[in-house]
Amino acid sequence: MWRLAAKGTLSLGIAAGAAAIASSEDPAATLKVCAHLPPRLLRDSATAATIAADYTWSLWGLEQGSPAWLAAKHDAHLRSANRLQELCFRNGGIYIKLGQHIAQLVRNSPLVLFLVIPFERGIAVESLVDGFEYVVPEEYVQTMRESMLKRCPVSSYEQVKGVFAKDLGESPETFFAEFDPVPLASASLAQVHAAKTHDGQKVAVKVQHDHLTATSVVDIATVDLLVNVLHYIFPTFDYRWLVDEVRESAPKELDFLNEATNSEKCLANFRRMSPHIAGSIYAPKVYWNLSTSRILTMEFMDAKEVTDVQGIKETGIHPADVSNLVSKAFAEMIFKHGFVHCDPHAANMMVRPMPQDSRKRFGWKRPQLVLLDHGLYKELDNATRISYASLWKALVFADAKAIKENSIKLGAGDDLHALFAGVLTMRPWQRVIDPSPDHLVLDGKNTDTSELQMYASLYFSEISELLRRLPRVILLMLKTNDCLRAVNHALVGGTSLESFMIIGRVSSEAVLDAKRMSRRSILDKLMIWLEEVLLEARFLSLKLILCFMQFRKLLPS
């Protein structure tokens, strides 16, 4: 079996190397990179095989749940986490991104992550052994947190100048009056430098790590290899569908001109389809004459990270207002625009007071949300967008019939519609259809986390089947939901009733807009008007309940 994997690794390495050289604008440099491919791929398969063998051997003959089994599993977790960490550092690039997501997303959200991990460019190691927890084990989280968030790769200034020379023909000093050779920040794919244009404008210059475009072909091939080998060894591990998603998204994320185009399209959508909040959404101005596929020059933003609660308060903004704005912005993108920023974690969103605005709400300034890193967007076709909006409207109003109908339309099937609802809301089915106004609210307490972990473990095979059935665009919406849930948890300590009211309102408006477009008769218009009146009445009652709940919180316990 392992000989077969090794032969497959070498064959895949040769094929990936040939593809990289053939598609590269600099074949000589790519050939140099590809010289390291066979050992790189062998290292990947050896790591996967070692982890699998470690769990199998360590737990062999031990009674599941016994003290000896738990101790052996803990030790295997630690050893495997260290092996995965070492693999990420040695391969770099996309692998660093895997480790960062394991650390950052789990740190920001204590909720179940079986939906998120498959999207991060690597393997879901928690699925290797029967009886294993189907969430990321704490040993992995701690290992990655202690290293990945602090040891991002940094390109030397000579390498940065090399990218400029290849893409623009000159060094940074030619194009900028000032260019700080020390990066402000570095991530897995690029690093950002502060600079000043010749006309005195302060800008942020995002420079891709050299040769990353060429090695990404290899990384994708490696993911393909690992997923297929692990599926061969462990048939229940079937995430082969993720390879197609990675193949599609990775080239887009590595093309900074595509990122710049997405940022401008995002703002144009708000101005055209959501003018009531367009002024509250911003993306840094792009300097097109100083940008290429590997260099992106943008307006420098002086703002707070979206989860910097203390910093946000110091600017005169209430964190709850930021939470509501984030919910509104992404509800509009998902349900109305159909063009969605799919990487909305904390580092990709900033907040500042609304420019040139003196108005205040109960003494607090109005926030403006600044969206960064527009490399990963997804478009929802009209039918999918309306079905997804109808599903969320049904979830907010606990409409079991509509939940089932729209879940089936989205591909969950008649047998898994309840599970799909639970995956979207992180609530069990009986809570999903509970008519109480706060039936979807999560407070992030340990009881919530334990309940979710239990359901993830009990229904892992059904969850795997659900993920296989759902369209890839819906899978990315699940990841987006989890990122937004983590941001709201940091801002207000959990999901709030008000955030679900926002989702319910925007999804309902999207459904009504679709009906107006398709139904033109006077009777249809009257029915739509009556439906709108009833919706407003329901939202008014929810608003009154929310005010009552907030008033109760102010009273002495």
Automatic annotation (TrEMBL):
Belongs to the protein kinase superfamily. ADCK protein kinase family. GO terms for cellular component: mitochondrial inner membrane. Residues 1-20 form the signal peptide. Keywords: Signal. The keyword Signal applies. PANTHER family: AARF DOMAIN-CONTAINING PROTEIN KINASE 1, ABC1 FAMILY PROTEIN. GO terms for biological process: lipid homeostasis; mitochondrion organization. InterPro entries: ABC1_dom, ADCK1_dom, Kinase-like_dom_sf, Mito_struct-func_regulator. This is ABC1 atypical kinase-like domain-containing protein. It comes from the Eukaryota. Residues 148-406 form the ABC1 atypical kinase-like domain.
